Amino acid sequence: MDKALQTQLKNIETRTGKPLAELEAIVRKSGLAKHGELRDMLKRDLGMGHGDANTLVHYVLNMAGSAEEKA
């Protein structure tokens, strides 16, 4: 993971008051699959900004999924 993404994710944790693992669990347990639906859910339910929600969904769907498959 590059440094810019790490910084963005750390800032998301700070702004939401939730650790990344909890945010990832919220996304995975939502029952939603489409990027836009997940982004909108985070904006609505957690009050996240568009950019933060978009980054988090991208991370969970792409980066975290890849890491789990490699483990």
Briefly say what this structure is.
This protein is mostly helical. 80% of the residues lie in helices and 0% in strands.
- Count all strands and give the number: 0
Structural class: mainly alpha
Radius of gyration: 11 Å
Contiguous helical run count = 4
The ordered H/E elements are HHHH
Q: Helical content, roughly?
A: over 70%
Percentage of residues in DSSP E strands: under 5%
Unreliable segments (pLDDT under 50, ≥5 consecutive)? Answer: 66-71
Shape field = globular
Question: Main beta sheet: strand number and arrangement?
Answer: none
Gap from first CA to last CA:
15 Å
Average of per-residue pLDDT values: 90
Describe the structure.
The protein is an all-alpha fold and 71 residues long. It is built from four helices and no strands. Helix 3 (35-46) packs across helix 4 (50-70). It is globular. The chain starts with a helix and ends with a helix. The relative contact order is 0.16.
